[in-house]
């Protein structure tokens, strides 16, 4: 099983380090490693992060999107060879870099097998975006926002509720498919990242919507004891995608011997080899996570049941 990677991008000073510190100290028992990047000779970020958790590695003297890309890959393999290996890796990109290059290197199949990009989080400074509306036309910031599966409006304590709502409206007009989160001091819902395997629904016949451990989000689990039709599942997921923050599942499709691990973040869906399932588990296990009120259990169940082959 590849180790999931969360890439954290965002403008200078938006709060990337603060978010990473929050994740490292709220990892719900998960052993996370962080690769931080400080643009410049003095590695302030590494000093800040030191002591937060084991396995923190700082890349010095540059930017991981260009000169230190080789180092990023070496660093990843170093982290992966730790005993025991981390259960998740957070990578911070420099505030002055376009994360697209890092995303491209992480999508390399050789790396993917060991460290799979799970999600990109773009941290934005709610105060700065409110005070300087033209920032949303800045090419670099736009590229950072575009690469984010999740956009975090950090420093929510520095703006009013009306200003936050206005920012959401502008972001929606610009990037309608993104999940926009809000946070103070980078306190993001850690459960959205490095999520556990999909649980068994208590009653297999009925999809269950339950409050996610993270305020503001809920999850829906669904299991089935028959294989699914791949084209019908793809159709259902593309229709559901705009409502979802993420999805994860162990799936079996007709005509395919092996189970697949399905993951979806934002609009990006991937299939990979599934880890071994506990004996007695259902053939198909799926969990959807969405902002409260966006999942209607009956509608989702009907759509999923149509996928059963
Ligand atoms: N008021 C307020 N300040 C915050 C919040 N989050 C972070 N800060 C402050 O914002 C400043 C920048 O935060 P960092 O986490 O260092 O930001 P960064 O994106 O890692 O910065 P660079 O690495 O320089 O690009 C620090 O002084 C933080 O204490 C917040 O939610 N509210």
Short summary of the structure?
This protein is an alpha/beta fold. The protein is built from ten helices and 13 strands.
Provide an overview of this structure.
It catalyses: GTP + H2O = GDP + phosphate + H(+). The two termini are 27 Å apart. The chain contains ten helices and 13 strands. It is 29% helix and 26% strand. It has helices at 16-25, 44-49, 69-80, 100-106, 109-114, 126-131, 139-147, 161-174, 230-240, 297-305; strands at 3-10, 32-37, 56-59, 88-92, 115-125, 150-154, 179-182, 208-211, 217-224, 246-251, 260-265, 268-273, 284-291. A hairpin with a 2-residue loop joins β11 and β12. The longest helix is centred in the middle third of the chain and has 14 residues, at 161-174. The chain has a seven-stranded parallel sheet, with helices on both faces. Strands 8-9-13-10-11-12 form a six-stranded antiparallel sheet, covered by helices on one side. With 309 residues, it is of the alpha/beta class. It folds into two domains: 3-192, P-loop containing nucleotide triphosphate hydrolases (Rossmann fold), CATH 3.40.50; 208-305, CobW-like, C-terminal domain (Hypothetical Protein Yjia, Chain: A,domain 2), CATH 3.30.1220. The protein binds guanosine-5'-triphosphate. Guanosine-5'-triphosphate (GTP) is lined by residues 10, 12-18, 45, 95, 154-155, 157-158, 184-186.
């Amino acid at each position: 099983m590849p180790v999931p990677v969360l890439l954290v991008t965002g403008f200078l000073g938006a709060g990337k380090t603060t978010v990473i510190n929050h994740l490292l100290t709220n990892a719900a028992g998960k052993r996370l490693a962080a690769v931080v990047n400080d643009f410049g000779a003095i590695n302030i970020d590494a000093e800040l992060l030191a002591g937060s958790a084991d396995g923190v590695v700082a890349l010095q003297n540059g930017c991981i999107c260009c000169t230190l890309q080789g180092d990023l890959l070496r660093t990843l393999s170093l982290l992966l060879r730790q005993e025991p290996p981390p259960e998740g890796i957070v990578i911070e990109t420099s505030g002055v870099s376009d994360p697209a290059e890092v995303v491209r290197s992480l999508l390399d199949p050789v790396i993917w097998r060991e460290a799979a990009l799970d999600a990109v989080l773009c941290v934005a400074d709610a105060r700065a975006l409110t005070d300087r509306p033209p920032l949303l036309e800045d090419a670099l910031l736009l590229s950072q926002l575009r690469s984010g599966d999740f956009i975090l409006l950090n420093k929510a304590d520095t703006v009013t509720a009306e200003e936050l709502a206005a920012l959401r409206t502008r972001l929606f007009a610009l990037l309608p498919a993104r999940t926009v989160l809000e946070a103070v001091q980078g306190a993001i819902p850690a459960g959205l990242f490095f999520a556990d395997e999909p649980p068994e629904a208590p009653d297999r016949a009925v999809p269950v919507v339950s409050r996610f451990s993270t305020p503001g989000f809920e999850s829906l689990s669904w299991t089935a004891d028959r294989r699914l039709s791949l084209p019908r599942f793809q159709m259902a997921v593309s229709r559901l995608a705009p409502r979802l923050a993420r999805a994860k599942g162990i799936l079996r499709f007709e005509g395919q011997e092996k189970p697949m691990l399905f993951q979806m973040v934002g609009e990006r869906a991937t299939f990979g080899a599934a880890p071994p399932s506990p004996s007695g588990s259902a053939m198909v296990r799926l969990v959807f996570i969405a902002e409260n009120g966006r999942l209607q259990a009956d509608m989702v169940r009907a759509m999923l049941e149509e996928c059963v082959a």
